[in-house]
Specification:
This protein is mostly helical and about 100 residues long. The chain is about 45% helix and about 0% strand. Helix 1 packs antiparallel against helix 2. It is globular.
Length: about 100
């Protein structure tokens, strides 16, 4: 009983968020990996309607994180995981990271 409809627009939204970064703000692969989790959560997980589906999403992200050798799964999934581009003075190309 599949009731979610995803298309390439959602995937492009994840990449749009990743491409809105600048190297002087994102200086490590860890920051970029955490941004990927943030964007995927914002695009996909925020639209899920059941706890079961949300848990499955988290399980998939944890499984993928095991393939990353530069960051531990605990660090990648650490909460809170917020990023914004409006906190840095409104420059839409900048995406600031939490400290």
């Amino acid at each position: 009983k599949f009731h979610y409809q995803w298309n390439l627009r959602e995937l492009s939204n994840v990449f749009q968020g990743l491409c809105s970064t600048v190297p002087d703000v994102f200086t490590s692969p860890k920051q970029f990996a955490r941004l990927w989790v943030h964007e995927a959560t914002r695009v996909y997980s925020d639209r899920l309607i059941s706890t079961e589906d949300s848990d499955k999403f988290k399980e998939i992200v944890q499984k993928v994180s095991k393939d990353l050798d530069f960051i531990k799964a605990e660090e990648l999934l650490e909460e809170p995981n917020f990023f914004s581009n409006f906190a840095g003075g409104g420059d839409e190309r900048r995406c600031t990271t939490p400290s």
